[in-house]
């Protein structure tokens, strides 16, 4: 695995929609890429952002390429010229679009069809559209009406995400899978990491997500603040970066929570950190099918999430759904009630329920390589 077959070149898939952030969608694709047979199948990536995309070094090490396409508002000529160059130089088995902004996908699918790409796939990862202007909403609607002409596969991370993006059109639910071998609960691993972080005697609440409005980070801080009223020996580990980092830092200081909150930024040791945690929270304003919730459940964490998140996410029975229009004390109290429940590894349950990445990678590989 991972070596280029000298006998015949691997087939190529063009992945679109990556950003500079190591979010759930990027994690989902990279999990597939790492676990597919790269002697048979290779991924190239196209991005519409100016910055270096997430995992760019790893993509290169695995044999993939990253193409930057300027947006039309930057240069119409370069936008279409780069697309033409990409498709003229490489015959692709599939174009797989992972972004929820339909106007961005329309041109790419149009060129894919023009150059004979047989599988043109769009994958919904969300249940609510982002805030946008009236003009952008009109562009979104017009693009939606045209996409049917170019797209022939529709995937969604959940029933709700499919309903939101595709309405009454046919689509297939593709679960967000994880590497179950990585996300095992292990007491030795837990204790070693807790010692490293100086958290041996702390009750650790954790979350993973960008510091952006949709993830509701201010409410997360409020939950921790409510907890400290009952018990000072609590620590929040927040994994993820974003535009609200400055304001969240200020909020932590204003509430004197510097000893109770650690903003860790982007991390590569999420499985280790989830072993450290005692509870996982996700009070998001909206989500598709959060891959971090699958990871957390695999490690046996009890999870407390917003009641707008699909019930399909409750794979292990360890997920509690709570409203986000209640006081943060309600969340703190609910978590505290479960504090003494024994934790055990749930990775085998997650695997048996069909959420192991190795199985998904095999299925996606078959789809990309099929002649249909």
TrEMBL record:
Q: Which Pfam families match?
A: Glycos_transf_1
Q: Which EC numbers does the record give? A: 2.4.-.-
In terms of CDD domains, this protein maps to: GT4_CapH-like
Q: Which InterPro entries match?
A: Glyco_trans_1
- The Glycosyl transferase family domain sits at 191-307
Q: Does the keyword Ubl conjugation apply?
A: no
Q: Which PANTHER family match?
A: GLYCOSYLTRANSFERASE, GLYCOSYLTRANSFERASE EPSF-RELATED
Q: What is this protein called?
A: Glycosyltransferase, group 1 family protein
Q: What class of enzyme is it?
A: transferase
Q: Which organism is it from?
A: Eshraghiella crossota DSM 2876
């Amino acid at each position: 695995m991972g070596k280029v077959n000298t006998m015949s070149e691997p087939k190529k898939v063009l992945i679109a929609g990556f950003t500079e952030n190591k979010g759930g969608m990027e994690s989902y694709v990279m999990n597939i890429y790492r676990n597919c047979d790269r002697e048979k199948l290779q991924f190239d990536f196209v991005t519409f952002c100016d910055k270096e995309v997430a995992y760019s070094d790893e993509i290169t090490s695995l044999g993939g390429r990253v193409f930057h396409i300027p947006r039309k508002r930057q240069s119409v000529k370069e936008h279409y010229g780069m697309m033409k160059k990409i498709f003229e130089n490489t015959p692709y088995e599939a174009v797989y679009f992972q972004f929820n902004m339909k106007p961005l996908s329309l041109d790419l699918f149009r060129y894919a069809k023009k150059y004979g790409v047989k599988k043109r796939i769009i994958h919904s990862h969300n249940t609510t559209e982002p805030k946008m202007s009236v003009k952008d909403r009109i562009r979104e609607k017009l693009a939606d009406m045209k996409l049917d002409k170019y797209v022939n596969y529709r995937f969604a991370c959940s029933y709700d995400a499919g309903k939101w993006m595709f309405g009454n059109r046919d689509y297939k639910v593709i679960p967000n899978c994880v590497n179950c071998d990585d996300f095992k609960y292990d007491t030795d691993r837990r204790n070693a990491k807790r010692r490293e972080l100086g958290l041996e005697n702390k009750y650790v609440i954790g979350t993973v997500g960008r510091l952006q409005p949709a993830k509701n980070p201010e409410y997360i801080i409020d939950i921790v603040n409510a907890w400290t009223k009952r018990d000072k020996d609590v620590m929040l580990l927040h994994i993820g970066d974003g535009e609200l980092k400055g304001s969240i830092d200020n909020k932590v200081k204003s509430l004197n929570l510097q000893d109770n909150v650690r903003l860790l930024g982007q991390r590569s040791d999420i499985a280790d950190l989830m072993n450290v945690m005692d509870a996982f929270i996700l009070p998001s304003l909206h989500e598709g099918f959060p891959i971090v919730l699958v990871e957390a459940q695999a490690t046996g964490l009890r999870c407390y999430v917003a009641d707008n998140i699909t019930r399909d996410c409750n794979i292990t029975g360890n997920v509690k759904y709570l409203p986000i229009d209640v006081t943060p004390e309600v969340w703190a109290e609910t978590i505290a009630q479960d504090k003494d429940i024994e934790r055990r590894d749930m990775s085998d349950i997650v695997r048996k329920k069909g959420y192991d990445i190795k199985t998904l990678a095999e299925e996606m590989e078959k789809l990309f390589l099929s002649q249909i």
